[in-house]
Amino acid sequence: MPITRGFSGRARRGRPGRVPPGQYDTGADWPTLTAEVTPHLVPDEWTMTVDGLADNPHTWTWRDVHALPGSTYFGDIHCVTTWSKLDVTFGGVSVDTLLDIARPRPEAAFVMAHSTTGYTTNLPLEDLRGDKAWIVWEYDGRPLPVEHGGPVRLLVPHLYFWKSAKWITRLELMDRDRPGFWEQNGYHDRGDPWLEQRYQGDP
């Protein structure tokens, strides 16, 4: 599958210090981009699993995960296709909470995020630790729209948004990196927007 190098024909604008290089502020818009068919997920049938290199691999139901301490993200998100959306609010649970229960083994250094659609994306474990990532089901105080990953998605806002896997169901702890869907198709393994890590070969 060819990689997408962004939209064209739109004026670029941004706020100094808020919008990474090569990005524009999408304002009130939230573009919908996906490589998969949008699934129909029933919350009561959804589960979230953290396994792989874990001392206490664990699976949560929809009710279970909602019983965990809640956490909110307020800030910005950035897509590799050059848009940024500022001052967004997501609600859910911190990935730290799930990892603390699953207890990653010392050799666990990477994570593969799996979606119900079969989509995958790889991340260093440190990018999910330290209040940097969430499992979210609310956007702006309302249920997360299905086209944006609802009822539940991964949120890793400091990386390009393809790392925030929609329709998340599993975090697999690994001792070595393994490319996910877009990484196998030319995208960068990490995806830091401030370093413009868009494609393989970028710094």
UniProtKB/TrEMBL annotation:
Matches recorded under Pfam families: Oxidored_molyb
Region (Disordered): 1-30
Domain Oxidoreductase molybdopterin-binding: 38-182
InterPro entries according to UniProt: OxRdtase_Mopterin-bd_dom, OxRdtase_Mopterin-bd_sf
Transmembrane domains' residue ranges: none
Protein name (Swiss-Prot/TrEMBL): Sulfite oxidase-like oxidoreductase
Organism: Nocardioides panacihumi
UniProt lineage: Bacteria, Bacillati, Actinomycetota, Actinomycetes, Propionibacteriales
